[in-house]
Amino acid sequence: MEGETPKQSCATLKDAEILSREAEFAQKHRSDTDEELLLYLKSYVDELGYIPKKTLIPGFSYIKCRMGPWPRVLEKAGLKKGRGR
């Protein structure tokens, strides 16, 4: 794109890919229950063996939109302990 550095252009492309992936996930999983989405998240993380940055998890924005702040989503999935209130 005119006026952008190669680094900016790559970032824009990456952002577009993430947005496309997220939209596709939302369309495919819109009728899933919260429990099904949490099971998906847990199995994805279990398969990796660690919790990656949320942006690396396909569907993170849709799941977050449905269930609230990401730390609470991880708690609901049993992947993170809640704050001891």
Describe the protein.
By secondary structure, the chain is mostly helical. It has one domain (6-76). The chain starts with 5 loop residues before the first helix and ends in a 9-residue tail after the last helix. Helix 1 (6-29) crosses helix 3 (60-67). The mean pLDDT is 87. It contains four helices and no strands.
Count the domains: 1
- Note the beta-strand portion: under 5%
SSE pattern: HHHH
Q: What Rg is obtained from the alpha carbons, in whole angstroms?
A: 15 Å
Cα-to-Cα separation, first versus last residue: 50 Å
DSSP, total strands? 0
Helix share, percent: 55-70%
Short description:
With 85 residues, the protein is mostly helical. It is built from four helices and no strands. It has one domain.
